[in-house]
Amino acid sequence: MSVSDLLESCVQKGLALGSSFCEARFFEERGANISVENGIARSLGSGIIRGVGIRVILGDKWGFASTNVINQNSIERALNDAIGGSKSIAGQGGEEAKIVESKPMIDTVVHKVKVDPEDVSPEEKVKRILEIEKAARTYDERVKDTSASYRDVLTRVMICNSFGTSIEETTPRTRVFCRAISREGENQQIGFEFVGNVAGYELVEGIREEEFSRRAAEKAVNLLKAQSPPRGSLPIIMDQQVGATFVHEAFGHNSEGDLVFGGQSIISDKMGRKVASSLVTIIDDPTQVKYGHFVYDHEGTRARPHVIVKDGVLVGFLHSLESAAKLEGEPAGSARAQSHQYPPIVRMSNTYFAPGDKSIEEMMEGIQLGVYLSGSDYGYVETQKGQFTCHAEQGWLIEKGKLTEHLRDVAVNGITLDALNNVTAVGKDFKMEAPGTCGKMDQGMYVDGGSPPIKIEGVVVGGRR
Question: How far apart are CA 27 and CA 343, in angstroms?
Answer without folding.
Answer: 12
